[in-house]
Design goal:
By secondary structure, the chain is an alpha/beta fold. It contains eleven helices and ten strands. The relative contact order is 0.19.
């Protein structure tokens, strides 16, 4: 996750989509706050006031029964492009997963690219985007289709994964990723992630932060999202530990803070004898199949694999397909 969130209010009110209406209904039902009264409270910057005002009635993942103070675990993450296995491990552990699409876009992040094998080395698949001001939110980023990048990606994956044992099982992902009519990056990423979740049998409730209209920066925004959803627990990626601890927003204990412990266990890769971690979920499915991938992402491996990962973000030796 990015080190700091920047939020901009909507330029003008637009009619709610069916998806937005469903997400906002979830907020109201989880907070026990009818007729949208919860919205006015989640917009406040005062987390303490927000916490004391809300009701803690939740209906998420409680065997279909309304339960007061039922434990509800929330996870929040930017929608990324063809995510790695750890992203889906985070989703499947949560009762509600929120796509953090209303924070600043980072062009050189996982939001618009991910890694797969190209030849015998990991390389980047990058979704080209139209140049936008630095402060543009993820949800407002447009995909650039001036070049036929979709066909290039399909060809790259077809050529480089043709000899993997379960290549036929990645076809639904390729179709979801490249044969759709989405022209906004967030829409496409979320669509891909939802299709992969269906493929893996993950039934976590998925919603967009932009539909909740929650304000705040960094930890404060995360807390406000949790409160809006009536969450009792927040599951964070390990990479956010430092700033969450620095901000101390979760120290009051209103929402319990937990950190994801997912360390990728080596699996047999067709391209190399030495395991390469943190590749797109495509690599996992192509090599071990959907059934084993479902089990793989549910495991929280306690021992770190002996991998040098410092090169992942800025490795000049990797190929970039755009």
């Amino acid at each position: 996750m990015t080190s700091e969130y920047q939020h901009q209010g909507p330029k003008k009110d637009k009619p709610e989509s069916k998806e937005q209406s469903q997400d906002r209904t979830l907020v109201q039902s989880n907070s026990g706050d009818p007729q949208g009264a919860n919205e006015s409270r989640v917009k406040t910057q005062n987390v303490t006031k927000l916490a004391t005002e809300r009701a803690i009635t939740s209906v998420v993942n409680c065997a279909g029964k309304t339960a007061v103070k039922c434990a509800v675990k929330c996870a929040i993450m930017q929608p990324t492009f063809l995510p790695w296995a750890g992203y889906f491990n985070l989703i499947q552990q949560a009762d509600v997963f929120v796509f953090l699409d209303d924070v600043q876009f980072d062009r050189r992040s996982w939001q618009s690219r991910n890694r797969v094998f190209i030849g015998d080395k990991p390389g980047w698949l990058t979704c080209p985007t139209i140049k936008a001001p630095r402060e543009t939110l993820i949800k407002d980023i447009q995909i650039s289709d001036l070049d036929d990048w979709r066909s290039k990606h399909i060809k790259t994956l077809s050529l480089n994964y043709s000899k993997t044992p379960f290549v036929h099982q990645i076809s639904p992902i390729i179709n979801a990723a490249y044969k759709n009519d989405n022209h906004q990056l967030a829409d496409m990423n979320i669509y891909i992630i939802k299709q992969i979740c269906k493929l893996l049998g993950i039934k976590t409730k998925l919603i967009r932060a932009s539909h909740l209209r929650v304000e705040g920066k960094r930890s404060e925004k995360l807390m406000n999202i949790c409160l809006a959803l009536g969450a009792t627990d927040y599951l964070s990626p390990e990479g956010s530990r430092q700033y969450l601890k620095e901000d101390q927003i979760f120290d009051a204990g209103e929402v319990k803070l937990h950190f994801q412990q997912f360390h990728p266990k080596p699996y047999q890769q067709n391209h190399t004898a030495k395991f390469v971690s943190h590749l797109s979920i495509i690599d996992v499915i192509a090599n071990i199949g959907i059934a084993r991938t479902m089990s793989y992402i549910k495991e929280s491996h306690l021992k770190e694999t002996q991998i040098e990962e410092s090169h992942i973000e800025n490795n000049s030796d990797t190929t970039d397909i755009e």
